[in-house]
Amino acid sequence: MGISFDKIDGLIWYDGKLVPWADAQLHVLSHGLHYGSCVFEGERAYGGTIFKATQHSERLHRSAEYLDMQVPYSVAEIDAAKAVLLKKNELTDCYVRAVAWRGSEMMGVSAQDTTVHLAIAAWQWPSYYDAEQRLKGIKLDLAEYRRPDPKTAPVKAKAAGLYMICTISKHKAERKGYADALMLDWQGRIAECTGANIFLIKDGKIHTPIADCFLDGITRQTVIELARRRGIEVIERRIMPDEMNDFPECFITGSAAEVTAVGEIADWRFAPGKITFQLMDDYTAEVQPKGKAAAA
Fold first, then answer.
1. pLDDT at residue 247 in the model
2. Of the residues 73, 178, 199, 212, which has the fewest C-beta atoms closer than 10 A?
3. What is the rounded distance in angstroms from the CA atom of residue 166 to the CA atom of residue 186?
4. Position 293 in a domain
5. Helix, strand or coil, per DSSP, at residue 100
6. Is there a single domain that holds both residue 27 and residue 155?
7. What is the 3-state secondary structure of 190-237?
8. What are all long-range contacts of 267-274, with beta carbons under 8 Å and residues at least 24 apart?
């Protein structure tokens, strides 16, 4: 186990100010802690530039709106805060976490008079999986919990409460020797992993579930765009688990996982191939600051 995340050296941007890492605290009776009124973003910086920073800031605002919260800083202000934070912490290649939550002025389900806080942290954190795992293909379990019906939860929000079943599912998978778990939706169709979107490949075409009950990830959108630039057809559709018998290739995407090959899901087996490796390379090139990529 590495260093505890409350003991990292550096500064955190907190409600408009840069504060020492250890001082970025909230009260134990904060509404966000008790009732899940909290939204966040996971982002990566490459060469000192946060990839699609504005899209992430915009999504943070949308997520807050789904939870009937209003982030007290504009998208432009959040983008500027992230840039200042990286510069002050002297970080170039790192992970960035922006988080907004309701404070402690009210304790109960209703929280209309609470203050909405915003904090941004950044730290060095490599890809979720090491290079060997990403190329060989990680192993996924099949989760018991399912992504909820869109009529039962704000599924388009990147909200803390929606990750409760993800944590439970990932813990169970890890105890069984898997890296993660594949979750189905409320109707038993393939949805996503606990923190990444999934893609399946056959006959030179990519198939991926329709993102209507889980997050349409920014990395997911980027990889779909990269594939189409290559002339690779991407089909967004309903996919049933037993269809995985027909797919020889599979990969997942996310800001933390980037593009990672999948070797097996429960009893299904896959072999990382040409399309997966091509999109890995294309994504690596895409996230690099354009001036730096051109110079290289």
1. 98
2. 212
3. 14
4. no
5. strand
6. no
7. EEEECCCEEEEEECCEEEEECCCCCCCCHHHHHHHHHHHHCCCCEEEE
8. 268/244, 270/137, 271/137, 272/135, 272/136, 272/137, 273/201, 273/248, 273/249
User: Where does a domain end: 72, 98, 123?
Assistant: 123
d(CA 37, CA 117): 11
- Provide mean pLDDT across the span 164-185: 97
Q: Give the start-end residues of each E strand in the chain.
A: 11-14, 17-20, 38-46, 49-50, 94-102, 116-123, 138-147, 180-185, 190-193, 197-202, 205-209, 234-237, 249-254, 258-265, 268-269
41 with 166, same domain? no
pLDDT computed for residue 294 by the predictor: 39
- Provide, rounded to the nearest whole percent, the portion of the chain with pLDDT above 90: 92
pLDDT on residue 271: 96
Do 116 and 22 lie in one domain? The reply is yes
Structural domain count, the chain: 2
Amino acid at 253: T
**Judgement on whether residues 89 and 17 belong to the same structural domain of the protein:** yes
pLDDT digits (tens, 9 = 90+) for 197-217: 999 999 999 999 999 999 999
| Structural domain harbouring 136 | 131-287
Distance CA 251, CA 278 (A): 12
Cβ neighbours around 274 below 10 Å, total: 10
In a shared domain, residues 75 and 140: no
